[in-house]
Amino acid sequence: MKFVKKSFIDKYTMNIKLHFAFALLLRLILIIFGCIQDAFLDVKYTDIDYFVFTDAAKYVSKGFSPFKRYTYRYTPFLSYLLLPNIWIGDFYGKIFFSILDILTSMLIFRVQKKAGVTTDICRLCTFMWLYNPLPMVISTRGNAESVMTFLILLSIYFHQVKKPFMFGIVYGLSVHFKIYPCIYVLSFYFTYFSPNSTLSGWKKLKAFLYPNPEKLIFVLSTLSGFAFPTLISFVLYGDEYVREALLYHMIRKDIRHNFSPYFYLLYLSELIDPKISAFLSFIALLIQGLLIMLVSWVIVSPQMLPAAMFLQTFIFVSFNKVCTSQYFLWYLCLFPLSFPLLNVSMAQLILPFIIWCLGQGLWLLPAYYLEFQGENTFILIFIAGLLFFAINACIICLFIKYLKLPDKHLKNK
Length: 413
Prior knowledge:
The chain is mainly α. Helix content is 72%, strand content 0%.
């Protein structure tokens, strides 16, 4: 039985490049299926944001600002990246995002191999992303989150190969594309110092913060990676860019139904008194910030960086005042890198994963009746959101419980 199992692994998983090609083919099939669904069914496959991106690219192709498209609140470079949607066909962007999806999985494989993880575990971790239906569907629906997963994984790779300049440039660029990666800045900065176990309190903090050449290179290159594209965007589009792409995400009040446990409270408080809504938003931000800083302080080893980033992202998304399905990709792309750092088997992950999926399903059912049937299911959505938040909190606790560096998954160097 063991021989059959090993033969099966050797035959079907030895050539990882074949899996990359097959996974891309699956995504192309989903894109074609999406075109058929859009043409014949009421519930569309293509993400509404994809139409926003394409419309913004149309404005850019005619020499206008992408921000002329209402609700376009992204970096203008995204609209430029999707100009082939206008020149070639509106399927281009979905293919582009799918390719970035595959490149993300390639980086997962490369980072794990570089870390000394065994080949079998490398493949397993790669397959966690490569054949995960969530990133498959989200990228083929035309959502741009694969741009972020690629940039985040690329920054981790440059950190791993000890190139602080390129690491900072890519990381700064990722913050330009979306603000949320700024939550990693302390973890990235602290990993350039090997902590002395005898230090504690103020001396430990001072040692962490004290600059060294690598820290300075990282800080300066990060500022450059963020400031250069941001300055270009400002020169091209001025206050319009600042207002729509930067300030909007800091002051937005999104009270539409979403996975966040805050959504219904924000919805009601906005009707009663906007000051209550502002207070709840502040509380959400405060809890996020404190927990993220705590993770940065406790998990500082460069080898444990993916685990720290996964925890920070999971906390950020779970405690955020707005939470949608595409946000899940922000931490799902980091879990494969964290898996070898957990003292847990694949079998032990199945039940939490099923419960996590069921939590989403319980939320999606009343959300469907609200959005497509017009029924008042706000209370049910709110309860489902609270249940999903509780599930996420349990997963955070389990992750911390099993967090360990298992030597059996690492090669001797």
